[in-house]
Design brief:
alpha+beta, Metal Transport, Frataxin, Chain A, Trna Endonuclease, Chain: A, domain 1, 2 domains, 6-stranded mixed β-sheet
Length: about 300
């Protein structure tokens, strides 16, 4: 992320408002970058939002660059455009300084968002230096990455809690497709890439592959390899971090090895996207593959009956 952040801060010194070169996703979240519309913004930003949330209506981690002050704030962001039904937990709002209070004066935008980290920025000869606010100590790339990882993980957990509440506005749309994905895969097994290589498990005339019960939890889908007859543990990456998904998959694979005496068990993760975290996590566990799914909506005109 630091390379992207460096590019963002360097571009913010210019009048270039283009954002097409910046990633659209980061760590399973949508990423949106803005330098302003029509004219350069006084506070350009990089925001990370859950799939069903908008920058104009929601709460989310965001980098806010106060150009006139040469300060970059990694914030618990709150939309200024439309008030959202939910916001950051009370533990953030009751114990964290707002940006307005942090600077001790009115700021151009986003003063009601909350400060997670603040970095003094120095740009010289196309190089960016980050120093801690008040201490003038250079901040390493590792610390910058760790700060972002911490707030993103906290955000994901916060959003996940809201999803589990039946009356939550996030519950109505966020991750809806993933909830239906498991049923879709089972019902269309023979038409999927999985069905070409693996068989579903039927015991006493009943399909037992879906939500296969173990004493450590239910496996999303358990199948068998057509060629080797080895077990295949399939987990859908729902509202989890990459680390959580890989850890869960590894536990189930370990259970199969011990309880089913299968040393060659495979693991498969089905996800909407593939990021660096997932890549590094699966590299530490042998025999894991990742399948990506796509949802394709098509409209056709109704001609009558």
């Amino acid at each position: 992320m630091k390379q992207i952040l460096d590019a963002f801060l360097l571009q913010a010194q210019s009048n270039d408002l283009r954002t097409s070169s910046y990633p659209k996703e980061y760590c399973d979240l949508k990423q949106k970058t803005s330098f302003g519309m029509g004219s350069p913004a006084r506070v350009p930003w990089v925001a990370f939002t859950a799939p069903e949330m908008q920058v104009s209506e929601g709460f989310y981690p965001v980098y806010l660059y106060y150009k006139e002050l040469n300060v970059l704030i990694l914030a618990y962001g709150i939309s200024e455009t439309s008030e959202f039904d939910k916001t950051w937990p009370a533990e953030v709002m009751n114990s964290t300084s707002t940006i307005k209070a942090f600077f001790g004066k009115k700021v151009p935008r986003y003063g009601d968002s909350f400060v997670f980290k603040a970095y003094n920025i120095k740009v010289e000869n196309n190089k960016v230096e980050y120093t801690s606010s008040g201490e003038n100590e250079v901040i390493s790339e590792q610390n910058i990455e760790a700060d972002l990882e911490t707030i993103l993980d906290y955000y994901k957990k916060t959003v996940s809690v809201e999803i589990k509440k039946e009356d939550s506005v996030l519950n109505q749309g966020l991750f809806y497709m993933e909830k239906q994905l498991e049923d879709f895969i089972i019902h269309n097994w023979d038409k999927t890439e999985l069905g070409k290589s693996f068989d579903l498990i039927i015991e006493e005339g009943e399909l037992v592959s879906q939500q296969y019960r173990t004493d450590i939890g239910n496996i999303d889908i358990l199948a068998k390899d057509k060629k080797t007859n080895c077990f295949v543990v399939i987990e859908l990456k729902k509202n989890q971090t990459s680390d959580d998904t890989v850890g869960q998959l590894a536990r189930y694979m370990g259970w199969i090895k011990k309880e089913k005496k299968d040393e060659n068990v495979k693991g498969i993760i089905i996800a909407a996207g593939f990021d660096k975290r997932l890549e590094y996590a699966i590299s530490a566990v042998p025999n894991i593959e990742v399948f990506l799914y796509q949802v394709d909506f098509k409209l056709r005109e109704f001609k009558g009956v």
